[in-house]
Write a structure and sequence with these properties.
The complex is a heterodimer of chains A (about 160) and B (about 100). Chain A is of the alpha+beta class and about 160 residues long. Chain A has helices at about 1-10, 20, 40, 45-50, and strands at about 60, 65, 70-75, 80-85, 90-95, 105-110, 115-120, 125-135, 140-150. Chain A is about 15% helix and about 40% strand. Classes of the chains: A alpha+beta (about 160), B mainly beta (about 100). Strand 6 (about 105-110) of chain A pairs antiparallel with strand 4 of chain B, so a sheet runs across the interface.
């Protein structure tokens, strides 16, 4: 049973990092088939992340709209909204340049779902926030600087 | 800890807007408590949203998603009464889920 699951995951091209976590991931539904991409969350540069996610160097794109505050008074709760007009958008990732882990979230957008995500992230300090979009195997990004008055990662 | 979740799904023209608010500490593992001891990491890692059993959004999260995570998105092909289900697994192996009908 476990063997066949591994084979399935391999054949599906799912990144098999974080095997240690696998035991804890045998939860309900589709979540059971997913693996948290530990390497992606450890990435320190945009280019490294794109490579880990299986692409080449990302290109800057005007087809991605990033809406966020100019100044975030509370770095623990920074609202962001990303809309991709890149045709065939498959995923949207949110990256905070100067956080301990650059990657905050990576959303998979199946056909039928609009490439438009709103969420809230933490920011340790003033820096660029990137939206990284994967479309037809290529990566595109846009950046926005958000100033942070009080950081969101302190104790 | 209970894991309260609020889900709203509303038809708007030919799309359904889904808004989700999940009760979760989203601890980074980098914060210290009043005695100066590190608070262990505890955050949602995987989340999946389905409409009548079909995945309409999935995501991998790190500790930088804010405490009590909020998520909003839209999808096509939904109708009133359809069932939205949200399920997550966190870094300690805990799971949570919630359901609502599209209104």
């Amino acid at each position: 049973m476990e063997q066949s699951r591994r084979r399935f995951l391999n054949s599906a091209g799912v990144t098999l990092v974080g095997l240690m976590a696998a035991a804890g991931l045998l939860g309900p539904d589709a979540l059971a088939a997913a693996q948290w991409n530990k390497a992606a969350f450890a990435a320190r540069k945009l280019e490294d992340l794109a490579r880990i996610l299986g692409g080449s160097a990302p290109q800057q794109s005007g087809d991605i709209v990033f809406v966020g505050p100019e100044i975030a008074e509370n770095g623990a709760v920074v609202p962001v909204e990303i809309t991709s007009h890149v045709p065939g958008t498959e995923s949207i990732a949110i990256l905070v340049e100067k956080n301990p882990n650059m990657l905050a979230a990576n959303f998979t957008i199946p056909p039928g779902t609009l490439p438009e995500i709103q969420t809230r992230v933490k920011m340790a300090e003033t820096c660029n926030v990137y939206a990284l979009v994967k479309a037809q195997g290529r990566f595109y990004y846009t950046a926005k600087e958000i100033k942070v008055t009080v950081g969101g990662c302190g104790g | 800890m209970a894991n309260p979740m609020k889900i709203r799904a509303r038809v708007d023209g030919d799309v359904v807007q889904v808004r989700v608010l999940i009760g979760h500490v989203m601890e980074t593992g980098l914060r210290k408590d009043a005695e100066g001891k590190l608070i262990p990491a505890h955050y949602i890692q995987l989340i999946d949203v389905t409409y009548d059993g079909r995945s309409i959004l999935s995501a991998q999260w790190g500790p930088a998603v804010s405490r009590n995570p909020y998520l909003a998105f839209k999808f096509r092909g939904g109708a009133k009464g359809g069932k939205i289900r949200v399920a997550w697994i966190d870094s300690t192996g805990q799971t949570g889920s919630g359901e609502t009908a599209v209104e």
